[in-house]
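sorry for the late reply, my laptop died twice this morning and i had to redo everyting from scratch. anyway the thing you sent over, i finally got around to it. pasting the sequence first so we're on the same page, its 276 residues, then the predicted structure underneath. double check i copied it right bc i was rushing
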Amino acid sequence: MKIVDLHSHTTASDGTYAPAESVRRAKEKGLSALGITDHDTVAGIKEAIAAGIECGIEIVPGIEISTIANGKEIHVLGYYVDTEDEVFLQELKSLRNVRNRRNEMIIENLQKLGIDISLEEITKRKKMEEGNIGRPHIAEVLIEKGVVSSLQEAFQFYLGKEGKAYANPPRISPEEAIDLVIRAGGVPVLAHPGLYQDNSLVERLIGYGLAGIEANHTDHTPEDVAYFTELGEKHQLIITAGSDFHGERNGSIFHGDLGTCTVDYEVVQRLKERAR
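ok and here's the structure:
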C-alpha cells in the first residue's frame, strides 16, 4: 500500500527541516508521497521536488493560507497550485506582510509583559530568502531565554489563542483563500477543522467551494476523525490526512512526525484530477 502525508512544513516557513531533509525523512518513514504546505509561501517546493526525484518520493506541491473568520484563525490548504503564477506569488507576498505585522504585535505584547525580546532576534531565525517566520521561531527564543521550558509551554502561556501575548491582525477570509487557490489552479482543502470548534463554519465553507477536508490530523481526537470523515463523504469531498510536521525544537516534534497521519495514494490521484 502506498501511503501519503499531505501536510508538512519546512524552513521556508516555520519548520526546522530544510525541504530536502523533510523529503529524506519521508523516505525513512516509508511514505510514497509528501505534501509540502508551508505557511503563505511556496518557496520550499522546488528544492523538495529535486530531493524527491533523488529519493523516489513524489512531492505534492501545496500551501497553507492563514485566514480569519468569526475572530478565529482558519487555515486553508491548497494543493497543486501553480507555483510560477506571478499574480499568485504577489498575493502571497501580501499575506506574508500581514504575518510579519503579527510577529511585531506579539513581540510588542511580550515586551509589555516585561520580557526582554526583540524582533531582530526573531528575524535572524529566517532560513530562506523567500520564506517567512512565525510563532515557533518566537517560541525558540523564549525557550533559550529561559522564559519557558518547552514549545508547548510557550504556546500555552504566551503564543496560543489563550496566551498573554497572542495577536491576530486582520487577514483575508477563508472564502477569499479558497478563491485564491482556485485562481492559481489548485484544490482548496480545509486544514484541521476539529481545531476550530465551529462546525457551522465548516459547513459554510463546504457550501462555498471547498474540494476537500483534512479529516485525519495529529491534533484531532478519534471523534473528530470520524465526524469529519463522515461529513466529507456526505458532501463528496476529497478526504485528506496530514501530520502537520514542523520538525523538532528543543527535542520535541511540533504537532506530529511525518507519517503520523496518512491516506492512501489514491487521494493524491483525486487531487491531481480535481486540479486538472
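The radius of gyration is 18 Å.
thats about all i looked at so far, will dig more tmrw
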